[in-house]
Design the sequence.
C-alpha cells in the first residue's frame, strides 16, 4: 500500500477551522486573525480532559519538549 502524501498546509488550515469551531467561533488571534485566543483554547482543552488539576498534567520531559507535550496532552485527553 502506498503511503498517502499529507498536505501540511491543508492540515494546518483544518486545525485552525476546528479550533475556531469548537471555541464557539473565537478567531481574534493572529496577524490576519483567524485563530482562537489562548483563554478560549485552554478552556476547550480543559473541557476535553486536559485538566490542570490531574497528576498527568504535571508530567513532562526535561528539558521540556513541545512536541512531546502535545503528545502527552493527547494521551491525557484520551484517558
Sequence:
Amino acid at each position: 500500500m502506498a503511503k498517502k502524501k499529507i498536505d501540511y498546509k491543508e492540515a494546518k488550515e483544518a486545525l485552525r477551522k476546528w479550533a475556531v469551531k469548537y471555541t464557539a467561533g473565537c478567531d481574534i488571534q493572529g496577524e490576519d486573525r483567524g485563530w482562537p485566543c489562548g483563554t478560549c483554547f485552554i478552556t476547550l482543552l480543559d473541557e476535553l480532559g486536559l485538566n490542570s488539576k490531574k497528576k498527568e498534567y504535571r508530567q513532562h520531559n526535561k528539558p521540556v519538549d513541545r512536541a512531546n507535550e502535545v503528545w502527552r496532552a493527547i494521551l491525557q485527553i484520551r484517558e
